[in-house]
Amino acid sequence: MRKIFRQIYVQVLIAIVAGALLGHYFPHAGQSVAPLSTAFIKLVKMVTAPLIFVTIVLGAKEMGGAGALGRIGGKSIILFELTTTIALLIGLWAVNTIQPGAGMNLTPSSIDASVLNGYERSMHASGGVMGFLLGIIPDSAVSAFANADMLQVVLFSTLFAIGLSHAGKTGETAYKFFEGVGSALFGVVRIVMRLAPIGAFGAMAYAVGKFGFGTMNSLLMLLVTVYAATLAYIVLILGGICLMCDVSLWRLLKYIRGEILLVIATVSSEAAFPQLVKKLEALGCPSGVVGIVMPMGYTFNLAGTCVAQVICAVFIAQAFGIQLSVAEQAVLVGISMLTSRGMAGVAGASFICLLATLAAFKHIPIEGAAIVLGVDRFIAEIRATTNMIGNAVATVAVAHWERQRDDVCMRETLGMPPKVATR
């Protein structure tokens, strides 16, 4: 029994339940412990940027330098773009089938749009797609890490890895140094992850204390639509990728259940990044592939964000009685793909993506986003979790396509039966 309670996922699960009970019965006390979650996430973010740098640099070395970096990175981006497009189409199908906003008969004047002011300022400050493209380039290498801008960190890390790969024998000393730095960073991660239950407790207590369980009832059909579409994407698309790559999706999800619970509690996929990297390496994926695919995933994998975004946009249109043609919905999908890139790295990016999409699409009143804001926290849980699961699946898949995955280790770790050799 004592061994069970030592498992991190069991501790996180207990913390989630305890936090929910505190927030429900003592709302003010629940909201007061929010700093516990904030502090934990800040600790994780503190180590994430340098960890991404080290994993990309060492990953490129292990896989053979700049050529492997481009090849694996290219496969990862293609996979992320393809799955994100499919996710958008699944979301579009779900919201048109269920029609969660039908019959609400809202008008712009009936919505208090003042709650959107802060988000709109962030949206305009981001500069849209052009701002995104220019924002990839940091003012300095130090500023990329100081601001924890993952796109900038990935760009600098990639360029540094390419440069170091051409350094020849003189670069070997640098590689040994970064190996030591990597070991030290993962040592920090082990310390920080012991605080995961405390962070999960604070996040759940705050969420339930502030919003209450009843908040979910007000826009229940919207939540049902988002969760149904997202689960369909995970089972059908990610499950299909796993099937093609000879791995069980269910066993993989069970293997990373601790990280899933942590993301659900903290609503931050970054919270699970360091631990997920180590788990995927222990699963049989080479550190080189993990070190390239995972950072790419945390900047380019937006399937969870996009499936929720398109559902919310069409939901608002339905709430206002606006009928969108097939062509208009196709344009909406295209705009969603662009705005999701343009908002990368912005605080509150997922909700700001929705505002940017509505502002660019112009057929749907942007004021309608205010009715979604109340349940955005619950949507964010499945959104962040889906992105994290997608990153894990992509890493396992690319390792398989690169013929670098240790399938014997993977099957043994996941509890899958040994593969029968065929003549």
Describe this structure in words.
The structure is a single chain. The chain is about 75% helix and about 0% strand. It has about 425 residues and is mainly α. It has a single domain, classed as Sodium:dicarboxylate symporter (Proton glutamate symport protein, Orthogonal Bundle), CATH 1.10.3860.10. The longest helix has about 35 residues, at about 65-100. About 45% of the residues are buried. The model is unreliable at about 340-350 (pLDDT under 50).
Keywords, separated by commas or semicolons:
423 residues, mainly alpha, Proton glutamate symport protein, globular, transport
SSE layout:
Layout: H1 2-5, H2 8-25, H3 27-32, H4 34-63, H5 66-98, H6 117-126, H7 128-135, H8 141-146, H9 150-165, H10 170-193, H11 196-211, H12 215-218, H13 220-244, H14 249-255, H15 257-266, H16 273-282, H17 287-300, H18 303-319, H19 326-342, H20 349-361, H21 369-373, H22 376-401, H23 407-414
Short description:
Helix content is 77%, strand content 0%. It is built from 23 helices and no strands.
Provide the low-confidence segments as ranges.
Answer: 342-348
The ordered H/E elements are HHHHHHHHHHHHHHHHHHHHHHH
**Overall mean pLDDT:** 79
Q: Describe the largest sheet.
A: none
Protein name: C4-dicarboxylate transporter DctA
GO biological process, one term: L-aspartate transmembrane transport
Subcellular location: Cell membrane
Membrane topology: Multi-pass membrane protein
